[in-house]
Amino acid sequence: MQRRMRLLMAVAVLATALGVGFDGASTPACAQGNACAANCRAAHNQCRIATKGSPSCDAQLRACLQSCTRR
């Protein structure tokens, strides 16, 4: 019983170190994609502030998000 618990703990530590969640959805690539999208949204907010809501900001956001999915 203790051996099994140690094995499970070792697997959990390894998965955490590798950035893999137990649901399989949490991967380093996913984290990079989320960071890229967050950067796009931050730039979009700054664009809308600077241009007082110009529609061109929305086009820039779409292009930026598309570049995140291509990576």
Strand proportion: under 5%
Task: Tell me the span between the first and last alpha carbons.
Answer: 44 Å
Q: Give the mean pLDDT.
A: 74
Biggest pleated sheet? none
Low-confidence stretches: 20-24
Helix content range of the residues, please?
Answer: over 70%
Query: Shape, please?
Result: elongated
Radius of gyration: 20 Å
- E-strand count: 0
- Determine the number of helices (DSSP H or I, runs of at least 4 residues): 3
The secondary-structure class comes to: mainly alpha
Order of helices and strands: HHH
Defining key terms:
mainly alpha; 71 residues; elongated; 3 helices
Question: Can you walk through the features of this model?
Answer:
Residues 20-24 have low confidence and may be disordered. The longest helix is centred in the middle third of the chain and has 24 residues, at 28-51. Helix 2 (28-51) runs antiparallel to helix 3. The chain is built from 3 helices and no strands. The chain has 71 residues and is mostly helical. It has a domain at 25-71. The protein is 79% helix and 0% strand.
